[in-house]
């Protein structure tokens, strides 16, 4: 018994490779990955940043695999997946509490939890929720952690929507803009993705630097 070609391509998909995911599932895959990465702890390893950027690139016909996506549906799928996933993660954490996080044995996930707790303690709810979107693993863990810590649902919802839209729409449009302006940009896809991920960490770096300066100023004044 032979397996249909379309099914074979989906079964062979590499979930860690953005181009493989997009070739197999298209726009629907973007929404699914955004939801899983931001709403389910098992999705912490998924390539959110590179997927958004590569998907935007494919809207211009670049990026290989013979795949071309439509920008409008892509932006909707990315935003809806990111926002509903984050809200779902919060509700799971609110219902299950910290036990859900404590049961997971992944060292990487627990490191993400420590960083998420540090963000919440250092910057308060609003800044932490927005900044977490730009840090892999932390954006997965912070949502259930916020629920477990009983962050007010209205505060969480407002700031996760703001951060989610800036992250999902911003990275997608960055890929689209570069694909539209640079010929054969797909040749430089891997370094470009690395650059985008690095740039996405700049807001966190700026906030950490400000916080350290503020702490030093308080110590000097004390």
What's the arrangement of secondary structure elements?
Blueprint: H1 5-11, H2 18-39, H3 48-58, H4 71-96, H5 99-103, H6 107-132, H7 138-148, H8 153-181, H9 189-200, H10 202-221
Helix pairs in contact: 2-3, 2-4, 3-8, 3-9, 4-7, 4-8, 6-7, 6-8, 6-10
Please, could you describe this protein's structure?
With about 220 residues, the chain is mainly α. It has ten helices and no strands. The radius of gyration is 19 Å and the shape is globular.
In short:
With 222 residues, the protein is mostly helical. Helices cover 76% and strands 0% of the residues. It has ten helices and no strands.
CA radius of gyration: 19 Å
Strand residues, percent: under 5%
Element pattern in H and E: HHHHHHHHHH
Shape summary: globular
Which spans have pLDDT < 50 for at least 5 consecutive residues? Answer: 1-11
Cα distance spanning the termini? 77 Å
**Mean pLDDT, as a whole number?**
79
The largest pleated sheet is described as:
none
Structure summary, number of beta strands = 0
Per DSSP, the total helix count is 10
Helical/strand content category: mainly alpha
Q: Oligomerization state of this entry? A: single chain
What percent of residues adopt helix (DSSP H or I)? over 70%
Membrane topology: Multi-pass membrane protein
Protein name: DedA family protein
Subcellular location: Cell membrane
Transmembrane segments: 21-46, 66-85, 155-176, 188-206
